[in-house]
């Protein structure tokens, strides 16, 4: 369609991020990768995803630099999918999404919880400012504004509407 703006063409970093990982299968594949899954059949069996959808998603994750496709067997050649540094960097986002989902459930309704690997104690993840340690869930204290690379349109958004 002419004139349609693709997510990856938008200036907002949120829209570009959603363009990379916003499809729900992508987040589930990454979650499985954090749990140690690396092989096509492991992802497919655990997720119950069709082979064509899984192939498409894995190709996209490799193209976006979140996973690396590495041979693990010759004759026939078989590949595994390993998290890259960029892929590992998205873990806090996935943890935060899961924590948000769990916060809406009673403790006895949670099928998966995050625990300290050493103590086994459940943890309650929060997003904080690295510089001050302050929680970022206060929408009055932390707002967006135009950054150094902002276009005139982005700058106008924050001048007209004020910080969001």
Tags for this entry?
globular, two-stranded antiparallel ribbon, 164 residues, Arc Repressor Mutant, subunit A, mainly alpha, 41% helix, 7 helices
Quick structural gist:
With 164 residues, this protein is mainly alpha-helical.
Assembly status? single chain
Question: Total strand count, please?
Answer: 2
The CATH fourth-level homologous superfamily of the domain at 1-88:
Winged helix-like DNA-binding domain superfamily/Winged helix DNA-binding domain
- Write out the strand line-up for the largest beta sheet, numbering strands in chain order: 1-2
Taking Cα atoms only, what radius of gyration do you get, to the nearest Å? 19 Å
Task: Determine the structural class based on helices, strands and strand pairing.
Answer: mainly alpha
- The CATH architecture classification of the domain at 1-88 is Orthogonal Bundle
Q: State the distance separating the first and last CA atoms.
A: 31 Å
What string gives the helices and strands in order? HHHHEEHHH
Low-confidence stretches: 1-8
Helix content: 40-55%
Quickly name the level 1 CATH class of the domain at 1-88: Mainly Alpha
Apparent shape: globular
Structure description:
With 164 residues, this protein is mostly helical. It has a domain at 1-88: Orthogonal Bundle (Arc Repressor Mutant, subunit A). It is 41% helix and 8% strand. It has seven helices and two strands. Mean pLDDT is 87; it is low at 1-8.
Task: Please write out the topology.
Blueprint: H1 13-21, H2 24-34, H3 40-47, H4 51-63, E1 67-73, E2 78-83, H5 85-88, H6 91-103, H7 152-160
Antiparallel strand pairs: 1-2
């Amino acid at each position: 369609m002419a004139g349609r703006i693709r997510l990856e063409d938008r200036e907002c970093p949120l829209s570009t991020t959603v363009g990379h990982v916003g499809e729900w299968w992508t987040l589930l594949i990454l979650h499985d990768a954090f749990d140690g899954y690396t092989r096509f059949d492991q992802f497919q069996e655990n997720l119950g995803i069709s082979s064509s959808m899984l192939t498409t998603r894995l190709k996209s994750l490799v193209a976006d630099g979140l996973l690396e496709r590495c041979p693990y067997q010759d004759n026939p050649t078989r590949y595994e999918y390993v998290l890259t540094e960029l892929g590992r960097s998205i873990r806090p986002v996935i943890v935060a999404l899961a924590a948000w989902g769990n916060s809406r459930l009673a403790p006895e309704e949670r099928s998966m919880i995050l625990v300290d690997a050493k103590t086994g104690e459940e943890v309650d993840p929060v997003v904080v400012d690295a510089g001050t340690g302050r929680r970022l869930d206060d929408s009055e204290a932390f707002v967006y504004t135009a950054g150094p690379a902002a276009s005139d349109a982005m700058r106008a958004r924050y001048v007209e509407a004020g910080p969001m």
